[in-house]
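Exam revision sheet. Question 4 asks you to relate a sequence to its structure. Input first:
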Amino acid sequence: MERKQRGFFSALKDEVVRGLSPSRRRPASPSSGLLRRGRRARAAAAEAVAPPATPEMAIVRRSGSLAPLMEGPDPGGDPRRRGGSGSGLGHWVKGQLGRAQSSATSSAASSASAAASSGKRCDVRMLIGVMGAPLAPVHVSILDPLPHLSVKDTPIETSSAQYILQQYTAASGGLKLQNSIRNAYALGKLKMVSSEFESAMKAMKNRSSTHTGGFVLWQMNPDMWYVELAVGGSKVHAGCNGQLVWRHTPWLGAHTAKGPVRPLRRALQGLDPRTTASLFSDARCIGEKKLNGEDCFILKLCTDAQTLKARSEGPAEIIRHILFGYFSQKTGLLVRIEDSHLTRIQTNGGDAVYWETTITSSLDDYRPVEGIMIAHSGRSVVTVFRFGEMAMSHTKTRMEETWTIEEVAFNVPGLSMDCFIPPADLRSGSIGESCELTQDSGGKSVIPQASHRARVAALEKAHDSNVDSVIWKMEV
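Answer key, structure tokens:
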């Protein structure tokens, strides 16, 4: 047996040497015929007792002779092509060049994909930061009674607003039914679009970055709410336990909001008529306007100076925050809500920069749910305008959101105050609203950091089944 194996490897060695030699063919020796007959006999005996040939054994031909070995790696891996014509080195070089070209193409594609992914993350951050969980301008409590209609010694603008709110309360289901609601639940789907960006050079970019997601909103008396919104692979949580308002985003972590306790703006978009009526209790009627062929009353609510000061922080000063409500004269329902707030940021040794954010929400598809009129769809248009002392620094960003309400329920059994407890990692230092607007592409705030301001840093990444594909932590 050893002699047969030795003869086989000797023949293999001879064929290898012959295949690698420049001449490729040597003169036949007198003993070549004898050796050939011996190899054929051994090959026939091996085929009789051996299993079917494998790809590794395909190097031996049926005639018993060995196919010339390739001088490089086989790019195709097909055993039937190993004995083909042409130089194996040539095929190997072509394969390497193909791999290099493919690698360069994939590298360029991955770079473009990384840049697009980075821009997409910035779009998602801006969308969620501005439209995810904004708050109402002023503090309002469900325990505060609605004002009674008074004409004597009351300005006509105020008395008109009180009359409009009474009509709105009656059209929404009545005060008695609304006061019987202890808690509420709403589930909806939404789509956010970052559509336009305009700079001082009049360069318009229609990026049309679209992100879909959903949200769930829980509310409970008095003044407690919790919202969870997931869009574009990121999730934002916000809530209020009646004493403080907090929010958690992947890039800022968990933090409390500046200023007094305020309701969630998303609840005012046709989901909570009782809180909406209380919010506009101090508003004034400033006129009428026709929207989509329908006459509407306009109520205007201005934030007082004390609340603006409480919401300001460090170099960021909130100058004004105004809320407009458009109530249909035909149905008495709220059909549009619009708020605009202006923030002034003074950097050290630099010019002041102003950020004006305007959110206009149209409410549609009112349907009764347990006797309460709820808007089941709507659309919001957001414009963020940045301007300052230098005209070249002006920018304008336009974003949109459309939403639909899938489920609404009132007086849900089992809902308790434990569902509105703030997160355990909530930091004591609060973060102002302007921090969402002043994030650069790297996720860092351009406002000078105060001693109690949280500094955001990405420390670790974790991939799980949830929409939070990145875990962010905060350093203080």
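Marking note for examiners. Residues 88-131 form the longest helix (44 residues).
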